[in-house]
């Protein structure tokens, strides 16, 4: 059986007395679209930053593509793509210049840069806008460009931290088409979202609330277990249950 792409074991992150991530344990398979679903402040982004080697865990263990995030964060960073909700693009560069810049940052071999640039432009649908200033792009186009830049070095694991926040529904749906293409090509995609409809696009989900995973499974499994028709209803019922037990 292949090694999981992501392994999290009793992961904890504290900021003073505040527990942002509270003993989270789960595994993510290679080629899986795995979603962290929950409201703002649930601990999703903090967990993602730990998995990306950007934050050290307080307790527990996390392994990404075979590398321990606490012991070898630099190897983790070399083997992942990361896209934040702010898209991480330079607005004073053109579309093409952004791709060229990130090709250098990610150490893409010079002999391969032109081919990968053209692939990123095709994926984002920006061939005709390659010389457009990035600041002039609509949110959906920036989002697709940011994803193209995040995977220029062909990482096996991609982390997307609320990538569709503030983007219109049509652009969100098109973006998820790209995510499905990545997973179909064998990449693992770990995505956080607070949009309940996006949960349906994931193979499996972890529902997070107050730093804890309160449910884990496929959208169908979670709906059947909760006796609900939609993921929004599932999440509301799960939160009500947690509040009742608090």
Key features of this structure:
alpha/beta; six-stranded mixed sheet; four-stranded antiparallel sheet; 8 helices
Descriptive report:
By secondary structure, this protein is of the alpha/beta class. It is built from eight helices and ten strands. It has helices at 44-51, 73-78, 95-105, 110-124, 139-150, 169-184, 219-226, 231-245; strands at residues 6-15, 18-28, 33-37, 59-64, 67-68, 80-83, 157-161, 188-193, 204-209, 212-217. The strands form two sheets. The chain has a six-stranded mixed sheet with strand order 6-7-8-3-9-10, with helices on both faces. A four-stranded antiparallel sheet has the order 2-1-4-5. β7, α6 and β8 form a beta-alpha-beta unit. α4 (110-124) runs antiparallel to α5 (139-150), α5 (139-150) packs parallel to α6 (169-184) and α7 (219-226) crosses α8 (231-245). The longest helix is centred in the C-terminal third of the chain and has 16 residues, at 169-184. It is globular. The relative contact order is 0.17.
Low-confidence stretches: none
Shape summary:
globular
- The value of Rg in angstroms is 18 Å
Oligomer status: single chain
- Report the end-to-end length measured between terminal Cα atoms: 39 Å
Along the chain, the helix and strand elements come as: EEEHEEHEHHHEHEEEHH
Q: How large a portion of the residues is in β-strands, by DSSP E?
A: 15-25%
Reported for the largest beta sheet, the result is:
6 strands, mixed
Strand order of the largest sheet: 6-7-8-3-9-10
Mean pLDDT: 92
Instruction: Provide the helix percentage.
Output: 25-40%
């Amino acid at each position: 059986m292949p090694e999981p792409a992501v392994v999290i074991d009793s992961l904890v992150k504290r900021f003073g007395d505040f527990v942002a991530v509270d003993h989270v344990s789960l595994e993510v398979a290679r080629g899986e679209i795995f979603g962290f679903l929950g409201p703002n402040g649930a601990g999703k982004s903090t967990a993602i930053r730990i998995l990306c080697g950007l934050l050290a865990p307080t307790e527990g263990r996390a392994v990404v593509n075979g590398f321990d995030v606490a012991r070898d964060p630099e190897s983790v960073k070399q083997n992942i793509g990361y896209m934040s909700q702010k898209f991480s693009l330079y607005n004073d560069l053109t579309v093409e210049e952004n791709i060229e810049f990130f090709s250098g940052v990610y150490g893409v071999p010079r002999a391969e840069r032109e081919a990968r640039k053209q692939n990123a432009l095709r994926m984002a649908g920006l061939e005709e806008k390659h010389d457009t200033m990035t600041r002039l792009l609509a949110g959906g186009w920036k989002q697709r460009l940011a994803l193209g830049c995040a995977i220029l070095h062909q990482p096996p694991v991609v982390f997307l931290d609320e990538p569709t926040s503030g983007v219109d529904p049509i652009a969100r749906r098109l973006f998820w088409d790209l995510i499905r293409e990545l997973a179909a090509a064998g990449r693992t995609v770990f995505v956080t979202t607070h949009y309940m409809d996006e949960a349906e696009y994931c193979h499996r989900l972890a529902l997070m609330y107050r730093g804890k995973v309160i449910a884990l499974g496929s959208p169908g499994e979670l709906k059947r277990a909760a006796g609900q028709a939609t993921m929004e209803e599932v999440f509301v019922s799960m939160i009500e249950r947690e509040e009742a037990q608090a």
